[in-house]
Design goal:
Elements lengths: L7 E2 L6 E2 L4 E6 L5 E3 L8 E6 L2 H10 L1 H6 L5 H13 L6 H14 L4 E2 L1 H9 L4 E5 L5 H7 L4 E4 L4 H7 L7 E5 L3 H6 L12 E2 L3
Parallel strand pairs: 7-8
Antiparallel strand pairs: 1-2, 3-4, 3-5, 6-9, 7-9, 8-10
Helix pairs in contact: 1-3, 3-4
């Protein structure tokens, strides 16, 4: 006789569904936390709908902390945020990257606009700066020898739209952040687009 599995509630929208249709995050007895993709991990579990809105809300408000009764590592939220990018049907690498920027912004991990980027560079932060395809040459020149410059295959309007803005010529992520590492997965292979590595 097939075992009946009780529906689980999403930590964001509270709607119920079968576990196999949701993303499970588990806190193991040793205190470690990870995304349990096969649903077999031992420990306390929390569930999130595979809907991008629920994933964004969970990351923005850190809802897993309450559900799992612990401080969930930032890398877990980064991995969860990346799940939203992979759910976009037919999306290419640029769309995935833009989706990641939106999620990073929701969590307060994205620096937007040239003034704020320059300000953070002056404060000593190590940034990866992603520039729109039509970004100002003067602005890009001002970044040289101060950070890593990564051209994005999207113009100002498209980059801005991804962030809920009319226009944006550049965004930045801290070099050592999980979001910056994940962004590397969505960048074209070497040779597809020029990625300039300036000394920091």
């Amino acid at each position: 006789m097939k075992q009946t599995i009780n529906p689980r509630s999403c930590v964001a929208c509270r709607k119920t569904d079968q576990p196999e249709n949701m993303i499970r995050v588990v806190r193991a007895p040793d205190g470690s936390v990870w995304i349990d993709r096969d649903g077999k991990g031992q420990g306390r579990g929390a569930y999130v709908c595979k809907d991008e809105r629920c994933i964004v809300l969970t990351c923005k408000k850190k809802l897993l902390d309450k559900a799992l009764r612990c401080s969930v590592p930032a890398d877990v939220y980064v991995s969860l945020a990346a799940e939203a990018g992979t759910k976009t049907a037919g999306a290419g690498r640029t769309e995935d990257l833009l989706s990641l920027f939106g999620l990073a912004r929701s969590g307060g991990n994205l620096t937007i606009g040239q003034d704020k980027i320059i300000e953070e560079l002056k404060s000593g932060k190590r940034l990866a700066v992603f520039t729109a395809s039509d970004a100002s040459a003067r602005f890009i020149e001002s970044l040289r020898d101060r950070c890593r410059i990564v051209p994005v295959s999207a113009d100002r309007e498209r980059l801005g739209k991804a962030l809920g803005l009319q226009s944006c010529q550049a965004v930045a992520l801290e070099e050592d952040s999980g979001f910056a590492r994940k962004a590397g997965d969505f960048l074209p292979e070497e040779g597809d687009v020029h990625i300039e590595h300036a000394s920091i």
